[in-house]
Structures are given as C-alpha cells and as structure tokens.
Amino acid sequence: MGTPVIAGNWKMHKTPQEGRTFARQLSTKALNLPEVDFILFPSATGLHSIHEALVDTAIEMGGQNMHHEQSGAFTGENSAEMLVACGCQWVLIGHSERRHVFAEPADSRPLKVATALGAGLKVMLCVGELLEQRDQGRTQEVLREQLSNDLGQLQRFPVESVVIAYEPVWAIGTGVVATTQQAGEAHGMVRGVLRDLYPDDDLGAVKVLYGGSVKSSNAAELIGTPGIDGFLIGGASLELDEFVNIAEIAKQELRSA
Ligand code: PGA
Predict the structure, then answer these.
(1) How confident is the model over 200-232, as pLDDT tens digits?
(2) Range list of β-strands (E), 65-186
C-alpha cells in the first residue's frame, strides 16, 4: 500500500462556517500526518469558503456530485467547471445515495466521469452491491456492471486521476461493517474487473478505498487487509478527533506493513 487516502464524505451535514472551522483545525492536525492523503467532500455550499481554509495545505477537497453538462437549464445542479472554480481537485461520482436514493440514471455516470476528467478533476468512483445482491451471490456481477458502465467512456484507465471506493450499500450508515474477508474479496473483484477492462494498462498503482461504517474501532483491521488503500468515511468524518484517529491508525498500519 502507498500513502493511505483518508476521505470524508460529509453528505448533507455542516454549514459552510462549521466546515471551515473543521478544515482549519484539520489542517493543523494534518501537519503531523504527512503520510496521509486527506480529502474532504463538503456540500456544494461550503466548497468556496472551505477551500480558503485549505489553501497552502496538503488537504484536498471535492464535490459530492456534479452534472455532466457544462452549463444549462439544470436547476439545483453544479458543473465540473464550477467545482474547479471553488477549488475542488476531486469529485465523488456514483455514491450509493446518488444511485439508490436519487435514482441517478446509469447512463449519466460515464458522461460525468469523462466530463470531470476533461475539466481536470480527479474522480472518486463509488461502487457497491445491495444486501439482496450479495445474498444472491451477485456481488462480482454488480461490481462488473457498475465499473464497466461508469468507466465506459475511458479508453485507458487513468491511474493518477481515478480512485475506486468500494462501498457495500448495506454497510453505509448502518454500523454494520464488512468483515475483512468480505472487503478483501470485493477489493480483489474490483481489481480483477479493472484488469479485464484495461488489459493493456499498468494498474499496479490503482487505489481502491473501502467505505461503509468505518470508525476508529474497526479501521486497523480494515486497513491491514491487502488491497485496501484507504477509506471513504461518512458519519465518522464529521467529528474531527474521530476522523484524525482513523488517519493515525492508517498511518501506523502503513509503518508496520
Ligand atoms: P458511513 O458512510 O461511513 O457513514 O457508513 C460512508 C459513505 O457513505 O461514504
């Protein structure tokens, strides 16, 4: 594993002011954790002011979603260019809440991925199966379907610009975390699918994160699992100490690996 990625998905939490205070405090604490790549995903309203708090720090920031068109009559949406203008380096695409709560059309995702990369954003693409799909033994099929659809516009896999977050839907916000065996297997599946999709690419450096009820109490086990390069954290990213604890744990594991 290289440098662990510790990403916080704040979902619809924190006002811009709260986010800015958190970002300032995190940037002080992150000075002691140069071996960790931090990324924050605040709500769109906070991006601009949080970016100001992160200027001159190594902490990166991203939007939680975007529209694939550059502009137009899309009330309530944000474009890649807008995210870049607010200081984003990243965008989350295909988070399970976008897929399942907002029923985002599958054919929008490959367009979003291509538009984001074209605008200079790095993409964190979230994939993961529902509980019933897992119970039916369809996890691998679902991951294959999601990855091949969502990356469908990319001839080559840009290892530097696309990170995959494996987030089993049944583990998100439920307190039920995947076992290390389940997570390890699914990460192996993600890597296997990418190898099938991009047989000519060198995928050695591709990063695959785990997400779903990550906390400081389960982080050590998970980060010690081969194939897990970091975490996408929801609930536990809202509290500074807990978020930093998880990063400390990831760093320790990296040192002892
Ligand atoms: P959780 O959310 O850590 O609260 O389970 C993870 C996510 O939705 O990215």
Answers:
(1) 999 999 999 999 999 999 999 999 999 999 999
(2) 90-93, 122-127, 162-166
Domain boundaries, the chain: 5-256
Query: Residues 153, 165: contact at Cβ < 8 Å?
Result: no
From the list 95, 129, 187, 242, the catalytic residue is 95
Active-site position among 60, 97, 129, 167: 167
pLDDT digits over 141-169, tens only?
999 999 999 999 999 999 999 999 999 99
Is there a catalytic annotation at residue 167?
A: yes
Q: Are strands 162-166 and 208-211 parallel, antiparallel or unpaired?
A: parallel
Taking domain 5-256, whether its CATH number is 3.20.20.70 is answered by yes
pLDDT band at 190 (very low <50, low <70, confident <90, very high): very high
The rounded Cα 246 to chain-centroid distance in angstroms is 15
Ligand 1 atom showing the smallest separation from residue 215 Cα: 3
Q: How many CA atoms lie within 13 A of 97 on its CB side?
A: 12
